[in-house]
Amino acid sequence: MPFGIPRSEPPRPIVPPPIPPSKLPQHVAPTPLSRASQIASFAFATGLTAYAVLLYDFGDKEHVFMPVRRWVDAHTASFFTLSARDRQVLSAQKGSTAAATGAAETQTQVQPDRRTPVAFFKENPVLGKEGEKEVGKDGKAV
Fold this sequence. Notes:
Residues 1-29, 98-142 are annotated as: Disordered. There is one protein chain. By secondary structure, the protein is mainly alpha-helical. Helix content is 44%, strand content 0%. The longest helix has 23 residues, at 32-54.
């Protein structure tokens, strides 16, 4: 060892002192009331958003939620109308029932209501407390 002091042993690692146990709780779970308020606020915000997007009346003008409303109306209209195959099955069942009983059957063609709830309530305004139609700012029935 030409340059310096000969090495005898490697330096010892520095060990930090042990951490004392904390007096604070280490695992804090939310209280039942806190969890219930979180769920209630989520449900309220989701419901309010769905109401604003799908039902709130923004007037007759085109607005930002109209494409979403048209899409939802197109998909939910199938829930309330029968498909062509369903109509065939029902007409076959009605025919067999009428033939079995011998009764003459009259068929009525009832068309489904394709209006949105907003359009329905514009045509049929809700009655107020006194039984009169609600009146808008312009003095006309809403």
